[in-house]
Write a structure and sequence with these properties.
heterodimer, A: 2 domains, about 0% strand, flat, B: mainly alpha, 434 Repressor (Amino-terminal Domain), 5 helices, 2 strands, globular
């Protein structure tokens, strides 16, 4: 039977190694930057760290699981949804949290920070749902 | 929705692993279906029914709350 509802396209399992390699490089870069072995501008270092971290987390999120099937795809969709709701909620309540703790209503949360926390939240929810189902 | 998957598997003396391999899913998925924690798609239900030589209706049954 030709599947009318196309499955979520995912990256091959080998990308998991690429992702962890990139994550390791990011950690190495942070260590080298903080110990001043690399003489890069602080803002540039921060941007490189965030970009590589985001890329490695995204690759990991898009990579196939060992036993990828329809049940896992359903779990993934639930985790994506939860992560999206978490991101929007965080963006809404962040100014309020700032007001309570810093006395300023303006949010200083960067898009990168939000995306990293959303991806981390996705991994947590995905693993929890996978373990429970 | 309840199902008789475990019984049918026992009749056929088939492990969860063997059934999973035959229909191309993970063993955990078969386990989840048997424990009523996951409702399979129509395609997967048809594949399972084909393995046991039964119809989907013979394997899966709606419950009052469905």
């Amino acid at each position: 039977m030709k599947n009318a509802q196309h499955d979520l396209k995912r990256l091959p399992r080998s990308f998991r190694k690429v992702s962890f390699g990139l994550l390791l490089l990011t950690v190495l870069f942070v260590v080298l930057s903080t110990t001043h072995t690399l003489s890069l501008d602080k803002e540039i270092s921060k941007q490189i760290t965030i970009s590589t971290l985001l890329l490695s987390l995204l690759l990991l999120a898009l990579t196939k699981d060992k036993a990828e099937d329809e049940r896992l795809q359903k779990i993934r969709l639930k985790a994506y949804t939860a992560s999206f709701i978490y991101g929007v909620t965080l963006a809404i309540i962040n100014p309020l949290l700032n007001l309570v703790f810093d006395g300023s209503f303006l949010s200083d949360m960067e898009v990168n920070q939000l995306l990293i926390t959303m991806l981390l939240f996705y991994f947590i929810v995905f693993q929890l749902l996978k373990a429970r189902s | 929705m309840k199902n008789t998957l475990k019984i049918e598997r026992a009749i056929k003396d088939m492990t969860q692993d063997a059934l999973a391999a035959e229909i191309g899913v993970s063993r955990q998925t078969i386990n989840s279906i048997e424990k009523n924690r996951y409702v399979p798609s129509t395609v997967l239900a048809l594949k399972i029914a084909k393995v046991f030589g039964k119809t989907v209706n013979e394997l899966f049954e709606l419950e009052a709350e469905d």
